Amino acid sequence: MKSKWNVTVNGVNHEIALKPGVFKAKAVVDGVSTPIKNKSLFIRLFDVPLDLDGTTVHLTAIGRKVDLAVDGVYLNSKAPYVPFENIPKWTYILSAILSLGGWAFCGLIGLCLGLLSSTLIISRSVNPQKKNLAVFSICVTGVCLLLDLIILFGVAMMTM
Question: What confidence tens digit (pLDDT) does each residue in 58-75 have?
């Protein structure tokens, strides 16, 4: 995924990049780096407003998908920008339940499954249409729990 952009704002060219880190990422604007605070404990999730000559652009990330929104449109995906403040709080709670529950049931495989499903649910909640978000989230949760139980049952049968 592209994580470096050259943007012209008010006739001035700016270079914006995301520098990933182990615990904290950094936004680099014209050579000046700024630490980014993640909004989730389980997946990379942030929406950072950057001021460029009086114009605000937004550097966003959900999981591995990083994008820059200029004038209300993402540059990579060409989709309209939706602020992350519009994400329902229950999606964060569901994300924690899926990740920790998967880890408790199946260890590392369950944790990976929980993180993947959390990314799907949060990505869907940022979508401007948000059609059937609750139904989609319940279905993803059900599938993840079913897979966790199948893995748990399979491991239990192998140890007998």
Answer: 999 888 888 999 888 888
Q: What is the pLDDT of residues 33-47, one digit of tens each?
A: 889 888 877 778 888
Tell me how far apart the alpha carbons of residues 157 and 86 are, in angstroms, rounded to a whole number: 44
Model confidence, pTM: 0.71
CATH number, domain 4-82, options 2.30.30, 1.10.530, 2.40.128, 1.10.10: 2.40.128
Report the C-alpha gap between 16 and 133 in whole angstroms.
32
The DSSP result for the chain, as a single string, is: ---EEEEEETTEEEEEEEE--SS--EEEETTEEEE---S-SSS-EEEEEEEETTEEEEEEEETTEEEEEETTEETTT-PBP--GGGS-HHHHHHHHHHHHHHHHHHTHHHHHHHHHHHHHHHHHHHSSS-TTHHHHHHHHHHHHHHHHHHHHHHHHHHH-
